[in-house]
Amino acid sequence: MRIGELAAAVGVTTRTVRHYHHQGLLPEPERLGNGYRDYTLRHAVVLARIRRLTELGLGLAEVRDVLADDTEKELTEILQELDEDLARQETAIRERRVRLRALLDAGELPAEGPVSPELAVLFSAMTPLSDSPMAAKDREVLALIETAASPEERERLMSAVGSALGSPEAVTAANEAYALLDALADAAPGDPEVAEAARTLAALIPPELLPSTDIDEDHSFLRAFYADFAPAQAEAIRRALRILTRVRTEEET
Questions:
Q1: Which of 3, 41, 98, 220 sits a CA distance of 20 to 30 A from 247?
Q2: What is the pLDDT of residue 128?
């Protein structure tokens, strides 16, 4: 048989046959006097087995071990491990579909989406603040923190932010804080309005959002965080965090 005939007989492409030759899975046949490979029935049998194994999900390294029959694992054990791995993938796919369905059922996705349904609810509460550039940045940071946080930290974050925006009065207070910060976009760090914005922001931030350890203002993440804001805005946020840290220290002593 020529390579094309072999490939057609087993239901694969000639490129696949050559790839299996290259990987050492399918022995190369002898060549005829005209240079063409001369495949036998035995080549077709082995190629068909390779196809069956790969269609089950075995990797080529595992297929090589099965064909060589020199692995410590029996084929049954390899297939059992494969079945367990597929079960894990199946569970993960179901969980992803549940999250996707929740996002789709929620209607219009936020600009920062996709985010968790819990954070989407919080963003919905922030809708009156949607015209604020500072509010938009805040949502981006919340989405970043939620993505990187552990499940426990994520739950704490949602609870803390939810309590901060849990009433129309709280949303109004947040709106005032965002407006003060937005007004600092072109101000100097020493502007008198920086202090007022810091105090207003400190009164708004839930203490639970602060890390349990002292804030290292030279931390690379904080440096990148402050650099994303105008200088006066960054100074207001920096002062607000210092206020909250000082209050917490006083409460602990």
A1: 220
A2: 55
